[in-house]
Design a protein that fits this description.
The structure is a homodimer.
Chain A lengths: L4 H10 L6 H11 L5 H13 L3 E4 L7 E4 L6 E5 L5 E4 L2 H13 L2 E14 L26 H5 L6
Chain B binds a DNA duplex through helix 3.
DNA sequence: GTAATTGCAAATAATTTGCCGTGCA
DNA sequence: TGCACGGCAAATTATTTGCAATTAC
């Protein structure tokens, strides 16, 4: 059973990035104008249920998709630009599987995402500007640690 | 500046699980009935921006929250029950930081979630039921790997 | 007193669905 | 011919926001 679903599948196969549904729809419509976004949603869901696609959440509200690969790779997201970099780390797979087993589970899938900021080679150690260790006498605000944070100056 | 925000903060401090906004609202309302869910959303966003809370996505549509800990732990989600188990793995932190650096980034935060299924000690190797290797002659469906998957019987 | 915060209801945004028409098998 | 599939628009769900009233400091 197929129709314009083939088009969506094709777009997915050709994608080497991590498109969201909106983007998939745009690409699919370019190949066949009589595709509706509902179909894209339906197809994508179907494929995800069958384990052929994986849904990702890189922040920014919309789900993004990529074809399941059985040699796993992970993602590093540049928090300033939103750009996604893939990397491999096959050792992890094994390590994490072992962790799951130790807890009594079979590992079905996993999610590993790093969020980072591009290193400016200029400044050697940007770590926490130094000083600023005794800014406020820290008024007592109930014994609630989270509440306490609400009282400090915004950033 | 605070008000019923203190209540939300308190609920958050006391939570040892990973409540979603709905649940936070329920708990907060128990302590002070004149809190609206909009306030919970606002407070939670505020705290997330300040880095005091972390938003999690364990599947199931709603965001879930937990207080930021600087000794990181990770999550294993039971895909059958939705139950979340925390585990530690301090070695990882370092390892992943190194990975990021190698790619030219400072690691700002990371997300590591395992999705697993409780092991039934009964059946030794549930792996893929055996047999069933030659179900269909695999009709040619364009050269699209994703499309090909759409043709196989559902599960 | 002044600015920040809240409640409420309405607005958004992403995703799903009902229904009915259409095309594939 | 039957039934899965697609289009459209309406429905749902999570979250955000405008605005006037309220509260904190």
């Amino acid at each position: 059973m197929t129709g314009q679903r083939r088009v969506v599948a094709r777009v997915l196969s050709e994608a080497s990035d991590h498109p969201d549904v909106e983007e998939l729809y745009r690409r699919a419509a370019r190949l066949d104008a009589r595709i509706s976004i509902a179909t894209v949603y339906r197809t994508v869901r179907l494929l995800e249920e069958r384990g052929i696609l994986e849904r990702r959440d890189f922040g920014g509200g919309r789900a993004r998709y990529e074809a399941t690969e059985h040699g796993h790779h992970y993602h590093l997201i540049d928090i300033d630009t939103g750009k996604v970099i893939e990397f491999q780390e096959p050792e992890h797979q094994r390590l994490l599987r072992a962790v799951a087993e130790r807890l009594g589970f079979d590992l079905v899938s996993l999610r590993l995402e790093l969020f980072g900021r591009r290193r400016s080679p200029a400044m050697a150690e940007p770590r926490r500007a130094a000083g600023r260790a005794d800014a406020e006498p820290a008024e007592p605000v109930a014994a609630e640690p989270v509440a306490a944070e609400l009282v400090r100056p915004a950033r």
